Structure formats: C-alpha cells, structure tokens
Amino acid sequence: PKNSYNAWGWGIPTGKQSGIGFEAWEEGIATVSKGLKENYMDRGATNLASIGRIYAPPSHTWAGNVQYFMNEIEQTSVEPELSL
Asked: Which domain of life is it from (predicted)?
C-alpha cells in the first residue's frame, strides 16, 4: 500500500488491499528479514525453491515466478533525482 514502506507485500492477506505498514524502510527490511529467517531459513530453506515448498505448496511455479521478478528488479536502474 502507498506510504506503507512495505515493498514486499509482507503481512497482506491474499485479496486484500492493505495490511502491515512500516514507519520507515529500515523497519520494513528488519521485519521482513527476521520473518524470512524465522519462518523459512530456521526450517531449512536455503533458496527460493525450498522457501516455495514451505510458503506455497504444492506450487511448482512459485519460485520461478519470484525469480523472474527478482531479475526484473535487478535490471532496473534508478536515476538520481536532480534538484535545481
């Protein structure tokens, strides 16, 4: 949601337009990182495929779809904002 500092859709139930909002990017990054560790890494997940087996069973396409968008984000360049 706009102004939520939640670029991950973390804590937003499927079909809903809003959910968890963070006060700043740092809070969002810390919360999502902690959640990934506790919910997936601590259960043995080490990559997208193993996260997908926990997060989205029985989907065989989830990890590939997530990887596609991760690649798209990596290819995006951010132009510095100029102020005159």
From this structure: Bacteria
